Amino acid sequence: MSAIAAIPLCFAEHEGRGITVAVVDSGINFNHPHLALSGRGFAVVREEEGLVIQPGAHADRYGHGTCCAALLHALAPAAAIMAVRVTSDRPTTDAERLARGIVLGAEEGANILLVPLGTQTVLTLVKEAVSFALGRGAAVVAPLPGPGVQPGCLPGVLGAQVRDGVDVALDGAGALWADGHAREAPGQRSNFYGPSLSAARVAAALARFAEARQSLDLQDFKKTLPVL
Predict the structure, then answer these.
(1) What is the pLDDT of residue 228?
(2) What is the pLDDT of residues 141-157, one digit of tens each?
(3) pLDDT at 60 over 80
(4) pTM strictly above 0.85
(5) Is the distance from CB of 203 to CB of 140 less than 8 angstroms?
(6) pLDDT exceeds 60 at position 14
(7) Domains identified in the chain and CATH numbers
(8) Which of 74, 78, 152 is nearest to 113 (CA)?
(9) Which of 10, 15, 73 is nearest to 221 (CA)?
């Protein structure tokens, strides 16, 4: 049994031109064949004196950030992508580095912060970082695989998850369709499946919307998505 036809892309005639998306994750390999881009990036590194920002040290050791960036680029090919690496020797991070990465992306002028990470620990630092980014006019998109997962559950953040084989954006009223993700046959999954990849698709849709409307008004964006 084959997958049902994909949901049409929202604002498919646009490509995210003029929009910068910071991917706050494990870094990005811009030389990967699915990207082949010239991109800038940073690493948030923990040293003895505390956190240090290292420009250009955004090499991806695990592939997660590169995968999310590749999907984002496929769906919004004109959007500029910035890498903010917040991991080190393991594919995990901590609240301080994650928060600093979110702030750094906003400080460096990202219009959209794609944060394909999540934690269920109550993290004041992450809340403050998200508030800072929102205050700078940036939008924040993050996975929301379940209740209480930060930063996806935080006020003002556009949470994303897979529901019945469809990528959805979450707000207080419930689920909205994102775009472009095929409904899959029972027992089948694509390579780009899971809440982190759903967040990448939502971020791409938001980038195309922002080009079309010259705005990052999330209430307006939500009105453009069909209700699931």
Answers:
(1) 72
(2) 999 988 889 999 999 99
(3) yes
(4) yes
(5) no
(6) yes
(7) 20-224 (3.40.50.200)
(8) 152
(9) 10
